[in-house]
Amino acid sequence: MSRPSGADCPSPRRFDIDRRKGRKMVNGSHRLRAASPRRHILAACLLLSAAATPAVVAQPQADVQQRASRTVGAEDILGLTDVTETAISPDGRHIAYVTRQKIANGPGRSTIWIVAADGSSAPRRLTHGAMLDDSPQWSPAGDRIAFLSNRPNASLGGVAGVDIDPETKPSAKPGAGDPSRQLWLIALDGGEAQPLTALDRDIRRFRWSPDGQTIALIAPDPLTADAKAERAAKRDWVEVDAPRDLSRLWLLDLTSRHLRRIAVAGRAVSDLNWSPDGQRLAVRAAATTGLNDHFYHSELLVLDATTGSVERKLFDKVYSTGSWSPDGRRLAFIAPEANVVGIRAYVADVASGAVKQLGAKLDGTIRQVEWYRDNRTVLARTAVHSRDILYSVDVPTDRFRPLVAFDGRIDGFATAADGSIALTGDQPDRSADVWVYRHGALRLLTDVNPQIRSWALGKVEHVSWNSSRDGRPVYGVLVKPPAFVGGVPRKTVVLAHGGPHDNWSAGWQGSWMNWAHILASNGYVVLLPNPRGSSGQGTDFARATKGGWGSRDYQDVADGVDMLVARNIADPARIGIGGWSYGGFLSAWAVTHDSRFKTAIVGAAVTDPLTMALSTDTPDFVTAYFGLPPSALAQMDASSPLRAVDRVKVPVLVLHGEQDRRVPLAQGLGFYRGLQLLGKDARMVIYPRESHWISEFEHQRDMQRRVLAWFDAHL
Predict the structure, then answer these.
(1) How far apart are CA 677 and CA 67, in angstroms?
(2) How far is CA 638 from CA 469, 543, 549, 643, 644, in A?
(3) What pLDDT, on the 0 to 100 scale, is given for residue 518?
(4) Which of 11, 444, 471, 480 allows an S-S link to 484, with CB 3.0 to 4.6 Å?
C-alpha cells in the first residue's frame, strides 16, 4: 500500500492523492494536480506498438560519478523543495507551479511561481505568504490565477463580498487560530491577492467556467450553530460508514458574488470538470466521504450546470472525473478493473453512454488521460516497466504513439490550446522540476534544488532479469554507490515498493520512504524490483498476486538478488531488505520464508491479511485480492507473515504510524510482539500522530537516520 494506483491501499493525501502521490486534471482551466506523493496515481493497461519510437527523450542523467563527494544524509533529503502541481496558461506562454518545503519544528509552506514557457526569463515568485498557497488555475483569459490558501483573511465573516444562499450561510467566521483553505485571486503580474471566499470549511477543489464568469467549487456545508455546540460538548460519536459531512458542489458568480449550492442528493462530490460550452459538469461522486467509497465506489456523473440535476450516470466506478473532448461529446477517464485489481482507460460518449476501452493490451499502466487539441486524440501518461512515457493516442484506431519518453517519473502534465504540454517530474539527479514540451522538443524550465549537484549520488540504472519460475522478464532499478567498482561485491539492500500495484521508476530515489539515494551514497548497492503484481506490465501482470501475496511475487525479488550475486555485484553474506506498506509486507515475508537476508525493516506492513481486511478503512483493497472471509481464510492465512513468525532468524526493525488507518497499528505491533514473545531479536518504533504516511519533520528525519544505522549495524 503505497501511493494509490488502482488496487493500492490509498493514501490520505495525494488524492489529496486527491496525490499524492491524486490530484486534478485539465479542462478549460488548463490545470494539473500532480499525483501523488507522489498521489491520484492510477494505472490502466494499453496497447504499445513495438516499432514506435518516442519523438523526444528527456535529458539523460548527468555523470554522477563526476560530482562533488558529499555524502547524502537525512537532512539533505528533508531539505529538498518539492514541486507538487503545475498549470499552463491557455495561450501556452506561462506556467504556474507550486513548490512545497518541509519546515523543521513548524508547518510546511507552499508557494506559487511563474515561469515563461519559452525559457526567456527566470522563474519568479507569485505568492509571498508563509502559509499553504497551492492549486493554481488560470482564468480562461489568462490574465489572472485563482488558487487555494490558508492565509489569514481580515475580511472574514460569511464570505468576503459574497452573498450566500440564506439556508446555507455560515453561522460564524472561522476561528483566527484555525484558518481554512479558501479561494483567492491574483493577477499575472503579481500584487496583492484578493480573497474570493471566507467559508468556515475547507474548499477542496474548484474550476473556472469556460467563460470566466463562474467558479465551481467543492466544500462541505457550513457548520450550523447546533453542530458546533455538539462538537464543543464532545458529543462527537461517529456511526461507522454512515454518510456525514458530505462535500457539496457550489457555484460562485464572480460578477454578483453570489454563492449557490447545487447539491447532488446523497452524494459526496470529490472532483469536477466543466464541459467546453459551460452547460454541464462532469463530477466524481460517492455515497459517503469514506476512503473506501471514494476510491472504489465513485460514480462518474454528468450534471446540468444550472440546476445540478443529474443528466446521466456514465460509469459506476471511476478513478478520475474525466477530461472533455473539445466538442463536448465525450469524456476520457480511468477506472478500476471489474474486481478492482488493475486499471483501465476509457472514452465515453456522453449522449449515448457508450464506452470504449483504450488499449487493452499495452505492456504498461496508464496513470492519467487528457484530451489533446482535437476530437480524436488523448494523451496518456503511462508507466512502462521502470520508465514513464507520455503517449499520443488516436482514439478511433486505438493507436499509441510515444510522444515523450522520460528519463524518470512524470508526476503529471497539463496542456494549453497551442499544444504545449507542461510536465512535472523527477529524474535520477533531479528530485523535482518543471519541463515543457512544445514544437517537438522537451525543455527543462526550472532548477528547484541546485544543491543536489554537490552530493555524491549513486548511479541509477534500469535492470532486468528472468523469472526462475516461468522465464518471464522482471524489471527494476539498480542504484550503485558513487565509487562502485565492478568485480567487488558490495553490501546490498533490497527496497520493495508499496501497492502492490505500484512500481519503481528510474527517477529520483530519495524520500522519507525511499532510502535508496541515502543508502547508495553511504556505500550500499540498492535493488528496487518490480515483481509481478506491480504496475507497468499490463493487467495480467498486476493480477498475478491475486490469492497469493508473497507466494506469487516474492520469487521475482529473490531472482533479482540471485542476478546481483551472479554478476558479482552483491555480497551474499551482507544482504538486507526493507520497505513501506506493501513493501513492508514483502520484507516480513522474506524473513519468514527465506534465509538469504541478514536483516529486515518492516514499515507499516500488512502482516495478517484477515485482520487487516476487518480493520482497515479500505477493506475492498484486501478482499479484491483474496475474496471474503470465511471462504478466503485459507488463502489469507497462507499469505500471513505473522503466522510464520517463528521462522525468523535475523534482527527485524518494525516501524509504524500510531494513527494509521490504512494499515492499522496492530499489524506492525502484532508482528513485533510475536517476535518478542519468541525471544527473537526485534525492535519497534511507533511515530505518534502519524497516519499511513509519516509527515512530521522530526519523525521523517528519525526514520531515515534509523534506517541507515540499522543496516550499518547488521550488514
Answers:
(1) 48
(2) 19, 18, 9, 8, 9
(3) 98
(4) 480
Q: How far, in Å, CA of 433 to CA of 580, rounded?
A: 25
Q: How far apart are CA 472 and CA 237, in angstroms?
A: 52
- Omega of the bond prior to 500 within 30 degrees of 0, cis? yes
pLDDT tens digit string along 264-310? 888 999 999 999 999 999 999 999 999 999 999 999 999 999 989 99
- The pLDDT of residue 164: 52
Which residue do the cell numbers 473506501 mark?
292
Assess contact for 319 and 310: CB atoms under 8 A: no
The residue whose grid cell reads 452547460 is: 279
Q: What is the mean pLDDT of residues 377-384?
A: 96
pLDDT in tens, 232-257: 889 888 888 888 889 999 999 999 99
pLDDT digits (tens, 9 = 90+) for 639-659: 999 999 999 999 999 999 999
Q: Report the amino acid identity of residue 316.
A: D
DSSP conformation letters of 262-304: ---TT-EEEEEEE-TTSSEEEEEEESSSSHHHHHHS-EEEEEE
The answer, yes or no, to whether residue 51 has pLDDT greater than 60, is no
Q: Smallest Cα–Cα separation from 48: which of 542, 398, 506?
A: 398
Extract the C-alpha cell encoding 200. Answer: 468556515
Tell me which architecture the domain covering 31-63+80-229+242-452 has in CATH: 6 Propeller (2.120)
Q: What is the CATH number of domain 455-714?
A: 3.40.50.1820
Query: Measured between alpha carbons, how far is 715 from 709 in angstroms, rounded to an integer?
Result: 10
Residue 571 has pLDDT above 90, yes or no: yes
The angle formed by the CA atoms of residues 22, 193 and 148, to the nearest 5 degrees, is: 15
Beta strands in 386-488, from DSSP E residues, in sequence order: 387-394, 399-406, 409-415, 421-427, 430-438, 441-444, 459-466, 473-480
- Count of positions (residues) in the chain: 715
Averaged pLDDT, 424-452? 96
Q: Residue range 410-423: average pLDDT?
A: 95
Distances in Å between the alpha carbon of 82 and those of 34, 71, 101, 444, 699? Answer: 11, 21, 7, 16, 18
Dihedral angle at the C-alpha atoms of 40, 45, 47, 52, nearest 10 degrees?
A: 50
CA nearest to 550, candidates 531, 535, 572, 563:
531
For residue 197, is pLDDT > 90?
yes
Rounded to two decimals, the pTM is 0.88
The one-letter amino acid code at 444 reads L
**Strand-by-strand arrangement of the 490-496 sheet:** 459-466, 473-480, 525-530, 490-496, 570-580, 599-603, 652-657, 682-687
- Please report, for the chain, the start and end positions of each structural domain, with discontinuous segments joined by +: 31-63+80-229+242-452, 455-714
Q: Check whether 37 has a pLDDT greater than 80.
A: no
530 sits in which H/E element: strand 525-530
